[in-house]
Design goal:
It is a single chain. This protein folds into 2 domains: 20-268 and 406-419, 3-Layer(aba) Sandwich (Rossmann fold); 283-402, no CATH class. The strands form 2 sheets. Strands 1, 2, 3, 4, 5, 6, 7, 8 and 11 form a 9-stranded mixed sheet that branches. The protein is 39% helix and 16% strand. The chain is α/β, with parallel strands linked by helices. The structure holds S-adenosylmethionine (SAM). The site of S-adenosylmethionine has 18 residues, from helix 3. S-adenosylmethionine binds next to helix 3.
């Protein structure tokens, strides 16, 4: 009977489940697209911060506000100093020895408990259950030495009204040392996913009823008892106003380094259609692009954009954005169709027009070179395992380079420098 007990034990840990990147919170898109995009935008500021700390012979202290199960730790520690060349060693911006302490705080004790299960053995990590809705001073920050990076991720600041956000950020500014970074992460107002909500006036706060319905398989979504909760949608001007007020309240200067829209093409709610029934289900096929030994039907990546009348500037952006993505996908489909595996040659190469945006031209050219370079490989399903993941990264590149940083994606993120 010891076998039975051993297998039951293994099963109960949950770690015996089939590994898949096709579903769930940590699907392929979260790991290979959303976390990576955030890391790439954070890279320059983090490099500078670490260089300054090294000059002063000091190590980094990081605060992750709304840390959930400690997701920010892996994201921040995974930021590399540069895009590594094929022979380079990967060097992380914050090496283990440069980290003095990472502190994660969250309202939800179950998530803090999970964070402790994942990271509890690491003496440099500390987690605390804390409610920051009334700010962090007086309170949590009184007991803490200054942090070098005040970090939030994946929509955490959307849990709060503008007034609460101003207080939270003003407390961070008061608490910060003479030089620090702050990353603020909200939900964007104008993502295609919630086109039904676009009409709410931008000069008034708006909270959507958010449902985490996407974690259920499609067939269970209609019947699942999914709780909803309010999350604030913002555009760039709203963040600018919050930052300006927080700066005035604390009497501390804070400068934006970059704003970026994250997840325009692959937002979680594209697949549920909860807030726009015309959404194509793109996250599933993009997860499949990154999954080894799974071939994706590339037709499922094509978007037939349905505009919402009366919102021309938004419609124009999405028309042109999705036309670029479609052009890249169709070009890839055409190359795959015209590739001769025996000769290793493309029989026909469609034109890349000079009128296309530069990021699109580069992405198309990359797909051609990759297909020509590896298409002849006879083992390891070169399409599923190599070509499709490059297409995933090419679409990610398009999104990163075409996004305006104004609220067009699931997430709208600002990275700021605090200077006293
Ligand atoms: C969108 S999740 C982000 C979680 C995590 N940072 C990630 O990257 O997945 C927002 C987090 O903010 C936390 N939160 C919401 N309200 C809070 C509050 N008043 N004080 C502290 N944390 C809060 C939630 O419990 C949740 O874990």
């Amino acid at each position: 009977m010891s076998e039975k007990k051993a297998y039951t034990q293994a099963f109960q840990t949950g770690k015996y489940d089939k590994a898949t990147g096709l579903l769930g919170k940590y699907d392929n898109v979260r790991r290979f697209w959303e976390d990576q995009v955030t890391a790439i935008f954070l890279r320059p500021a983090l490099n500078d911060l670490v260089a300054r700390k090294k000059k002063r012979l000091e190590r980094m202290r990081i605060l992750d506000v709304g840390c959930g199960s400690g997701d920010g730790y892996d994201l921040i520690m995974g930021v590399t100093t540069k895009h590594p060349g094929i022979c380079d060693y990967i060097v992380n911006a914050v090496s283990d020895d440069m980290l003095k302490e990472y502190v994660g705080i969250d309202l939800n004790e179950n998530l803090i408990q999970q964070a402790l299960e994942y990271y509890g053995d690491n003496p440099k990590l500390r987690f605390e259950t804390t409610d920051i809705s009334q700010g962090m001073l007086p309170g949590f920050l009184d007991e803490e030495p200054p942090f070098d990076l005040y970090f939030t991720s994946f929509g955490t600041l959307s849990h709060f009204t503008s007034e609460q956000c101003i207080k939270i950020i003003a407390d961070i500014l008061r608490h910060a040392p003479e030089h620090a970074l702050f990353m603020g992460d909200w939900l964007g107002r104008y993502t295609f996913e919630w086109q039904d909500l676009w009409h709410h006036p931008a000069d008034q706060e708006y909270f959507m009823d958010y449902r985490i319905s996407y974690i259920y398989p499609e067939e269970e979504r209609a019947t699942a008892d999914v709780a909803d909760f309010p999350l604030k949608l913002v555009c760039r001007q709203e963040i600018e106003a919050i930052i300006e007020s927080a700066s005035q309240e604390a009497g501390v200067a804070i400068k934006p380094l970059v704003y970026f829209d994250r997840s325009i093409f692959i937002g979680r709610h594209l697949d549920t259609g909860d807030y726009n029934k015309n959404c194509p289900k793109l996250r599933g096929p993009v997860n499949a692009l990154f999954e080894t030994y799974v071939r994706t039907d590339l037709e499922n990546l094509l978007v037939d954009y349905v505009p919402r009348p009366g919102f021309e500037h938004l419609n124009n952006f999405f028309e042109s954005f999705f036309m670029s993505c479609n052009t890249l996908v169709k070009y890839t489909m055409s190359l795959l169709g015209d590739y001769d595996c025996d000769t290793g040659k493309l029989e026909c190469i469609p034109d890349i027009l000079p009128s296309y945006p530069k990021p699109l031209q580069e992405a198309m050219e990359t797909m051609r070179r990759v297909i020509e370079g590896v298409g002849w490989l006879k083992w390891g399903d070169v399409r599923a395992n190599l070509i499709e993941s490059v297409l995933g990264f090419a679409l990610r590149k398009l999104e990163m380079e075409l996004q305006p940083g104004t609220g067009m994606g699931h997430g709208l993120v600002g990275i700021f420098e605090i200077k006293k």
